[in-house]
Amino acid sequence: MIQSERVTPPHLTDLPIRALTLDDLRRCADLSEDRGWPREDHKWGLLLAAGNGYGVDAPDGQGLAAVCVVTRYGHAPASPILAAIGMVLVAGRYARQGLGRRLMTHICDDVLKDVPLTLHATPYGRPLYEELGFAATGRAEMLRGAFRPDAPADAGGADAVTVRRATAEDLPLIVHLDTEVFGADRTHLITRLPAFTDRLMVAQDGKGAVTGYGAIWPNMDTHVIGPLIARDAAGAKALVTALAAATDRPLRTDVDVRHEELLAWLKARGLESVAFNDVMTRNTPGLPGDWTRRWAPLTVAAG
User: Fold this and answer.
1) Which residues pair with residue 167 across a beta bridge?
2) What is the dihedral of CA 297, 298, 302, 303, to 10 degrees?
3) How many other CB atoms are found less than 10 A from the CB of residue 201?
4) Which of 124, 149, 241, 303 is deepest in the core (most CB within 10 A)?
5) Within its chain, how far is the Cα of 84 from the centroid?
6) Facing residues of 203 across strands?
7) β-pair type (162-165, 199-204)
8) Is the separation of the CB atoms in 279 and 136 below 8 Å?
């Protein structure tokens, strides 16, 4: 009688990491839901199209065990100026078994070795990222709520700024401004905004030059405001007011905590603080660009 050998299943940290495609969108959304996050199918679609997803298939055959998304910025994708890591998720049944560390180590030390990196960390994830060489270099406050616009007689300076819907002719100007403010070329992401967002608007100075832009996009039961680029607080407020007029849903946005005036203004108009995330970087002392004109990201998952 021939006895078959017992095959020992591989350890979680030995499972192969593979590139994700748009065909994995539903599996990514399922994993978000598994961890108590919103499914965010719309956002996943953008991240997987503009960036690169990496994941580990669940050994039980039930979807993905772990995922993350990398969005590279710069003129040469093979040697980016900056890369953002986001949507780092491990299925609940595989949590605390080293899988998240394994995936992040692979991304940081193999895929993106020596590349300047950034991510937004929750208090839960920060200890792991610190062990991997990340340092907190900033902080963002997440706000959510029903926006109450100013009364016409109390526009908070917003009426001094001209805001209008963006046109196709504005897109090259938006890309140029974004590259200047962000500090790295994001053409592959910004040119997707007209299709991804529900409204894209620009702010102009008295001579008609584009000095800022903002977008609003749907995410489950909310609308997210971001990116938000403006020359000053008045421009940021004007863009938010115009974008908020496009929806009846609650708003959500993430604002650099150094923008105290905008944060106070948003809270006075109905938005409430939900959480704080640390902006962390590795292989760079901080983010490039001009933070004074960078008010809110498209999404914290893309830096």
Assistant:
1) none
2) -10
3) 21
4) 303
5) 8
6) 163, 212
7) antiparallel
8) yes
